[in-house]
Amino acid sequence: MAGSVTPSDATESAFGDIDAKTAAALFAVAGDIALVMDGAGVIRDVALIGSDTQFDAATGWIGRPWIDTVTTETRAKIDTLLKEAHSTGVSKRRQVNHLLVDGNDVPVSYTALRLGRDGSLVAVGRDMRHVSALQQRLVEAQQAMERDYWRLRHVETRYRLLFQIASDAILVIDATTLKVLDANTAAGQVFGDSPDRLIGRPFPFGAEPGAARVLDDLMTSARSAGRAGDVLVTMSDGGRSYHASASCFRQESATLLLVRFAATDVAPSLETSSQSPPRVLDLLERSPDGFVVTDLDGYVLTANRAFLDIAELASEEQVRGTLFSTYIGRPGADFPVFTSMLKKNGVVRLMATTARGSHGHQCEVEVSAVWAPDGEEPCVGFTIRDIGRRLASGPQGARDLTRAVEELTSLVGRVSLRDLVRDTVDLVERHFIEAALELTNDNRTSAAEVLGVSRQSLYVKLRRHQLVAPGNERDDAPGV
Questions:
Q1: Which CATH number fits domain 20-127: 1.25.40.20, 3.30.450.20, 3.40.710.10, 3.60.15.10?
Q2: CA dihedral sign of residues 344, 347, 349, 354
Q3: pTM of the model
Q4: What sections of 353-416 are H helices per DSSP?
Q5: Does CATH place domain 166-263 in 3.90.79.10?
Q6: What is the pLDDT of residue 176?
Q7: pLDDT tens track for 266-321
Q8: How far, in Å, CA of 290 to CA of 303, rounded?
Q9: Assuming Cys at both sites, which of 91, 175, 357, 371 could form a disulfide with 312, CB separation 3.0 to 4.6 Å?
Q10: CATH of domain 270-392
Q11: Helix or strand or coil: residue 174?
């Protein structure tokens, strides 16, 4: 139809008269930078978009070959871009690195286009720094994952090696379904089957009926308390007896039980160590004084019945794994004193302190300690003697003094040391004056001689401690 304009005609009329500089500005809008070059690849103009200061140096490229503005390793890509633009009109997109004045390089992805018949070129580039940063972070994350993977592989290898060479039979059991998840070689020998065939079977199995109930109770205690002590179980095949213990632990979202079986002729733990004759262990268990063994951090490994009575607990499983300072002395204060004295002297003898039961009962005790820091299992042994009856049967003044000292001790941290020392001196002085008066049947002259002070000095102290009424200060020596 006459007068109609085709799309190609419209495009030609809109862009036909655009010069190279305007075209470069137009291309820069589509990217971050546009370079106008002659047919030989020499930069004649630069168009930028945005306010990125990294490209401020690009205006200095005018008059230089494009290939001289990039790093050595990317020059071959510039040759390829120029050849493709001359031959096909449009090159494929390739990434090069521009070398800046400060020594850094900026990655830019370019596409080169041929303009006009004179062979002029325009290279349109996109800043790829943010993409390079993301790629670098991805590479670092992959490397970190690779390192963690190999670290886990090494840990698993060590675990499998220790698990398989252990002389005790060990089963890993799902605490919910009670199915065996893993078993070592020794477990296969104890239960008379290969470890692979034990996996998936519901536990307990292979034990006598009575022992199976004991194992059920053992696992129940481990689930509730975290660990359960040794129990004696007898296997149905051969009738051999084993010490069984269980521990509960979490792995990911599952609760698992680790059940261990040790032959009765092999000591499974410190409290049944063959290094101590059974007779000695039996005597310690029956001792009227408390006996506790802890590790060097103060966690209880074993305790006798007398200590359980002091701690007001029913079984050794309740105290095992707890801190010794929970029951003896001031929490966090006295145990470091024990360890420092042990390091200095090797033993602690008759240290007076306080014991606390789990139900709030307190009593006065004397603690002696000895340690074995160089053994296979470094530990500390404590002997605890209840001296409450001894103090209760002592003089009334001594009991009052003990209670007063306890009251002053409870003020540590709330009252300054100077005030505590002053009050303690007054307390002890009052106590000894009362003891002297009691010894001399309230004869103040004799009491002054016993104390080695003058009568006037004694009267001053009596008034200060309010031990005499005002005006009742006559000399009461015999014959007066």
A1: 3.30.450.20
A2: positive
A3: 0.34
A4: 388-392, 396-409
A5: no
A6: 86
A7: 444 444 444 445 667 777 788 888 899 988 888 888 888 888 888 888 788 888 88
A8: 8
A9: 357
A10: 3.30.450.20
A11: strand
